[in-house]
Inverse folding.
């Protein structure tokens, strides 16, 4: 039996939701959501201490989607996790919907911080982490950033602050899909050596495959349990567009909406993987 | 230049922030590598004091995170630098998220005088008041600064408070016990021949000008519009309607500040002539504050001259 079968199936379901949401709305960021889908599924279905029926519970772990344009994945995960009915997902980007093109905490249950403009989330997360320590609360704060987002200087201001204050209850995740909106990160503004950069800013850095649930969970469990006076950075190598072959690693799909034929192919790929996962689990069970 | 009684708004701020900090443990003070403004808090309540270094944008983001965690952060540094460098953090992190962050900018207007243009703040009111959810306060002097900050503790949502630097003229008497209410203008002097609306240190000069104009037989009223946003429209319209001439004075670009805010209220409703005094949409020059006041027609004798000219033409 695959330890992560449920999470894998959940991820495929989320990807299916994402495709359906953007096709219905005619807009949205698909591939930046696909690259973080597995990480969000691990966080919300296994790692974060949260209560969907009491989204503002004081003792909850906090999650900040600093790359707010990845919100399609977050909306689908929050709905599947029970923060609001999955029926609401169909309203994405419609007038008056709680689910806009970037997350808004005043409209959507389960969103801790409204974000959109890049480079803001880590400072906010650092403030939450500082307050948690000050109040002797044992919650953790997870901030998910895009790799292109780390072009922003404010990220590095926050990185300095967090290590200076020893905020080991703060976990940054960089979605290292190596593409920003227009091109490869290394062509636009080189980020490497990214591991060394975070390390030199005083962070404890864990490098993982951001689509391998074992590695995602091991790194998060380590970060959540290790309070050694340093903030944690999980450098998650991911694939932009992960899960739909013709979108993977293609910058032009950053905001593109699949046409009818592409939608059918995308949904078919996802459905085939779901079948394969179910079959493999039956085979394993019969063994 | 007439001699004014002065008192430092920053020193007053330091005292009152420390006082409210002692009373309310939710208050966190943050200062970006600055001293003075929150000095007493830093000294007496170091466990709730954060210096994030010279990183204003980060400071505002952190403050938003603190407010999201139940704290009431007071943050400060130089007004122009804070409101410009961190403008987007103020808009997105603080105002969009509707958080009770109190942003204290010192060095209002041209009060940093010879430090020069980069250290002046003549655009802050325009920027801050155009952000939804934001409350904008420019206290008249050190005494009103104390009242404004005491009142700010439990007020909902984000607040921007701009204060001076050091030798700020006094408008109120020491021990003044009049009530301060956010959003409620204060009539400092009655008179409807001319009504001067002002905010911040300019009010001291407006009052001196009104006194001098009395000798001309002109009844000049002065109203302290300490809260630039929200404006008490009903009250201001009532005052504006009674006046025969309206003057606004502020240590700010003539575009977008108090004068603009008043004109937005008066348009189509108040039909008397109005003049907006302020920095005439130029980068303020390098000179002592008092010289700059004279240069930009904000000192008492300039106000007197302008009112006389203005009243002859209408």
């Amino acid at each position: 039996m695959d330890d992560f079968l449920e999470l894998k199936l959940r991820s495929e379901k989320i990807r299916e939701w994402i495709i359906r949401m953007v096709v219905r709305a005619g807009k949205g960021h698909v591939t930046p959501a696909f690259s973080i889908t597995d990480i969000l599924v691990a966080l919300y279905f296994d790692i974060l201490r949260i209560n969907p029926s009491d989204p503002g519970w004081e003792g909850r772990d906090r999650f900040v989607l600093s790359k707010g344009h990845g919100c399609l994945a977050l909306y689908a995960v929050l709905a599947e996790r029970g923060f609001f009915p999955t029926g609401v997902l169909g309203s994405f980007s419609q007038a008056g919907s709680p689910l806009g093109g970037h997350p808004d905490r005043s409209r959507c249950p389960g969103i801790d911080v409204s974000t959109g403009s890049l480079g803001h989330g880590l400072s906010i997360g650092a403030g939450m982490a500082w307050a948690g320590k000050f109040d002797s609360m044992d919650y953790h704060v997870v901030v998910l950033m895009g790799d292109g987002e780390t072009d922003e200087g404010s990220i590095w201001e926050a990185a300095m602050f967090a290590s200076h204050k020893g905020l080991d209850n703060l976990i940054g995740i960089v979605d290292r899909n190596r593409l920003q909106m227009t091109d490869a990160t290394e062509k636009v503004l080189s980020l490497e050596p990214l591991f060394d950069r975070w390390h030199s800013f005083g962070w404890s850095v864990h490098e993982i495959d951001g689509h391998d649930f074992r590695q995602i969970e091991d790194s998060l469990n380590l970060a959540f349990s290790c309070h050694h006076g340093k903030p944690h950075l999980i450098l998650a190598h991911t694939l932009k567009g992960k899960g739909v072959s013709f979108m993977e690693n293609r910058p032009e799909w950053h905001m593109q909406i699949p046409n009818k034929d592409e939608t059918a192919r995308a949904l078919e790929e996802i459905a085939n993987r779901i079948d394969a996962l179910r079959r493999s689990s039956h085979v394993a069970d019969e063994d | 230049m007439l001699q004014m009684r002065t008192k430092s708004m920053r020193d007053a701020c330091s005292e009152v922030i420390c006082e409210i900090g002692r009373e309310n443990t939710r208050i966190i003070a943050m200062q970006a590598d600055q001293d003075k403004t929150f000095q007493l808090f830093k000294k007496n309540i170091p466990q709730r004091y954060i210096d994030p270094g010279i990183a204003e944008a980060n400071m505002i983001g952190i403050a938003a995170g603190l407010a999201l965690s139940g704290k009431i952060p007071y943050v400060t540094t130089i007004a122009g630098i804070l409101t410009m460098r961190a403008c987007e953090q103020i808009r997105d992190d603080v105002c969009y998220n509707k958080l009770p962050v109190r942003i204290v900018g010192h060095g209002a207007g041209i009060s940093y005088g010879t430090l020069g243009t980069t250290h002046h703040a003549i655009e802050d009111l325009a920027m801050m008041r155009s952000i939804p959810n934001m409350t904008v306060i420019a206290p008249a002097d050190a005494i009103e600064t104390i009242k404004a900050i005491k009142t700010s503790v439990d007020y909902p949502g984000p607040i921007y408070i701009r204060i001076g630097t050091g030798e700020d003229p006094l408008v109120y008497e020491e021990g003044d016990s009049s009530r301060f209410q956010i959003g409620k203008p204060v009539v400092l002097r009655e008179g409807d021949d001319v009504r001067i609306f002002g905010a911040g240190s300019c009010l001291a000069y407006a009052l001196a000008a009104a006194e001098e104009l009395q000798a001309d037989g002109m009844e000049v009223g002065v109203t302290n519009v300490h809260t630039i946003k929200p404006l008490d429209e009903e009250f201001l319209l009532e005052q504006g309607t009674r006046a025969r001439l309206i003057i606004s004075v502020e240590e700010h670009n003539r575009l977008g500040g108090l004068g603009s805010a008043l004109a937005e209220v008066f348009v189509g409703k108040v039909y008397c002539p109005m003049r907006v005094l302020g920095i005439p949409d130029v980068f303020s020059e390098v000179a002592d504050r008092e010289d700059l006041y004279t240069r930009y027609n904000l000192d008492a004798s300039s106000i007197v001259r302008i009112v006389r000219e203005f009243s002859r033409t209408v």
Notes: The mean pLDDT of chain A is 96.
